[in-house]
């Protein structure tokens, strides 16, 4: 057997005093390892991500995920919506080019933050794993999919976010920030509307930890100039040391923008002019008369020029602005219906339906009865030219097909799912492209198409009204 190819690519050290993060990456035909001087070395394979010193392995691979559509693109990554087949859930897949030094540095920061924070922390995006795609040179980070988009997206839809809604959102964001600051000793350094995601259920989620700084104690300070200039605090612009209050400034500025519908400084003149405004002008408060004094006072505390005058996140939770609307009947879930897209939800229903349907078929005869709730006595099936009407007849036909497939261990693999609404009653046409696969020698995958008409019995509950299966010969 010929020796396996191993290739080490040396990367020049980061310049200056920050030369504690990156050293090199090493590649082989099986893995890509990012070596660092200050972080736990991280090894990426097509099967997942391993933290070498801790022995932790996040098993997730490209074949586990079906990429659905592009959600957005930033300076260092492209984010897609995907479907994690084995867990029946939608995810966000952030694809990063690991060969670019700056994006690699940000990726490690992102991963360190995500791995340090356990999943299901309220207000933080959950992390499921990461893997290497050798053909593209990308590392794909798999994250919780947040279905309402960012607060920047919400503002683009509604123009201004009402103060009572903003108060309830802020309370949840502050709890997440308090966790980052107090428990994880982390300065996010890029709090802005685009980095606060919202679920349709009304839960905010802080994301994008790529330029976060980890400090050893609450007395330590940061000294690097990283982040979005438009939300940067005065001490950071002045190139002074900074800590957790820098995130409080960014939050205050973001709240003014979300409440008024526009960024509070004249950013069009360029970054230098913007810095001058931030350093020399009074903090931009929401206009008196249009907003409550409680909100104006809350923002004024966040936007204090002197960082030591800004309260910590957990202290701000007891501010009158938060208390003022604590019992307000407004629902964040109701408010978030402004960004609800019924077609997106229908697409999700179709994808979950298709993958579950074929998973039951692939499970064999023992699981066929589990398909019974999908059919009524009016359901119609046409299987490669043969018709069956009603639940019992359809299950009998599927049972005959399962018998035929069992000997050859034939399984259905979904290649693509397309969905379109039918009329106004919630019905949908689901078009599945797939292939029948068998491990038997010489058996080539056989493509098929299957069309389902899903009719809605009541909100969120569907049955198969019509179904047509056709082998492509």
UniProtKB/TrEMBL annotation:
UniProt-annotated binding residues for ATP: 95
Keyword match ATP-binding: yes
One Pfam family of this chain: NTF2
UniProt keyword 4Fe-4S present: no
Catalysed reactions, semicolon-separated: L-threonyl-[protein] + ATP = O-phospho-L-threonyl-[protein] + ADP + H(+); L-tyrosyl-[protein] + ATP = O-phospho-L-tyrosyl-[protein] + ADP + H(+); L-seryl-[protein] + ATP = O-phospho-L-seryl-[protein] + ADP + H(+)
Enzyme class: transferase
GO molecular function terms noted in the UniProt entry: ATP binding; MAP kinase kinase activity; protein serine/threonine kinase activity
InterPro entries: Kinase-like_dom_sf, NTF2-like_dom_sf, NTF2_dom, Nuclear_transport_factor_2_euk, Prot_kinase_dom, Protein_kinase_ATP_BS, Ser/Thr_kinase_AS
Sequence ranges assigned to domain Protein kinase in this UniProt record: 65-322
Gene3D superfamilies in alphabetical order: 3.10.450.50, Transferase(Phosphotransferase) domain 1 (1.10.510.10)
Domain NTF2: 349-471
PROSITE patterns per record: NTF2_DOMAIN, PROTEIN_KINASE_ATP, PROTEIN_KINASE_DOM, PROTEIN_KINASE_ST
EC number annotated for this UniProt entry: 2.7.12.2
Keyword field: ATP-binding, Kinase, Nucleotide-binding, Serine/threonine-protein kinase, Transferase
Superkingdom field: Eukaryota
Family membership noted in the UniProt record: Belongs to the protein kinase superfamily. STE Ser/Thr protein kinase family. MAP kinase kinase subfamily.
Protein name in UniProt: mitogen-activated protein kinase kinase
Source organism (scientific name): Pleodorina starrii
